[in-house]
Amino acid sequence: MAKSVSMKEMLPSLPDEKIDMLAATSVLQQQATEIRNQRPNWQPYLQSQMISQDDFDFINAYDNADSAGRSKILAENRTQAAKTFPSLLEHVSKDQTIQYILVLIDDMLQEDRSRVEIFAEYCAKKREPVCGQFLNLLNGSDGFIVNMSARIIAKIACWNPSANLLDSSDLHFYLNWLNEQLKLNGEYMQSVGRCLQVVLRHDEYRLAFIKVEGPSTLLKVLASRQVNFQIQYQLIFCLWLLTFNPKFAQKMNKLGVIPILADILSDSVKEKVTRIILAVFRNLIEKPEEPNIAKEHCIAMVQSKVLKQLSILEQRKFDDEDIVEDVQFLNEKLQASVQDLSSFDEYATEVKCGRLEWSPVHRSAQFWRENAARLNERNYELLRCLVHLLDTSKDALVLSVASFDVGEYVRHYPRGKHVIEQLGGKQLVMQLLSHEDPNVRYEALLAVQKLMVHNWEYLGRQLEKEQGSTTTTAKSAAGVLAGKTAM
């Protein structure tokens, strides 16, 4: 049996040979196989003056050569190759021919990634963007053309040894396009995932993908559970690549990555999906620079029932050494975190994960007496999380628990009502009074009552002050009057 590819070995050399080996045949690849057999007749394009004699001579010779012949032609005609391929894409209008040209270019690069330099050198001399023609094709309507163009852009952007070949505006456009394709979840989803698997090995590209909110899209697609295991694997692979940016690894669980991946892990029957999830979890512990963030991630994994899954995985036999090592590593880290787990740590992690349930801390009066003020820490971070859940969650249990927690915070923290109002929580709780779920309505009603009680107490104190002031004034007036009478 062939030895499995180590995850740790994959990142430096990452792309495409490894990715193509791991991935099932995509729709794009299937179509490309058919298109290779539909060789165009280049003569009419020359006769109609759509292409130049030089372009015709090059493409006709290249198209009719075998692999060795093509290598020789490229070696001897680098400049002409760099001129001809973009020129054909610009001047040919027939979709079928454009598809064929793109397949030729992709095959050329796939055979030898150093051929990216053919385009890079020529465009540098001309001071033109190397991916310009391919980026323009992303605006088209033919699914094969736009997705093959995206695949070629990924290779050009990442395979040039001297520099990254996309400027900031082109990079933003390209990554935003990929992000929108993820949202569509169409037939070329696997090809979109593969492009991201290539570009996200570069930290500069990771940062740009984060700016277009790509990680949130990845997680929404994964949370929907509407993709097959191959696409699941590819998208989680992209998350794994993102965890190699330490600053982003610290923030990832604010997007809910741990509970989403924990759910997929519990249902996973494919070893490579299990392997990549464990690799993400390991990085979420190892990569953050702040120890308390790593601790929070451990607690979030415990709360998402990852320990249970690890115990199940320990009973299985794996040929992949990475899985065995990662299961052992995660078990040790999570067990250690359970030993130091305080009730507030547990509560804070639950809130940040966004998966509220009726765990004991919520109903504990002692917990709220001791910890209500701690919800103000880090500029009201936990309260903002609760308010965000009240605003965005569709889960009745989450809304019920969040409403209850807001009420308890107000009850146990003197200025709680004012803080909740400032954060917009009061209005959100009041909106839940008309929620379709009776439990949500009940908890919202209790929370509103607690908010109003503070009003009444304040009003009562004001009335007492006013009554006291009136009584004092009356007594003083009576004393003055009595004194005048005595005189």
Automatic annotation (TrEMBL):
GO terms for cellular component: lysosomal membrane; vacuolar proton-transporting V-type ATPase, V1 domain. GO terms for molecular function: proton-transporting ATPase activity, rotational mechanism. Signal peptide: none annotated. Keywords: Hydrogen ion transport, Ion transport, Transport. SMART domains: ARM (SM00185). Residues 341-456 form the ATPase V1 complex subunit H C-terminal domain. It comes from the Eukaryota. Transmembrane segments: none annotated. Belongs to the V-ATPase H subunit family. V-ATPase is a heteromultimeric enzyme made up of two complexes: the ATP-hydrolytic V1 complex and the proton translocation V0 complex. Subunit of the V1 complex of vacuolar(H+)-ATPase (V-ATPase), a multisubunit enzyme composed of a peripheral complex (V1) that hydrolyzes ATP and a membrane integral complex (V0) that translocates protons. V-ATPase is responsible for acidifying and maintaining the pH of intracellular compartments and in some cell types, is targeted to the plasma membrane, where it is responsible for acidifying the extracellular environment. Subunit H is essential for V-ATPase activity, but not for the assembly of the complex. This is V-type proton ATPase subunit H.
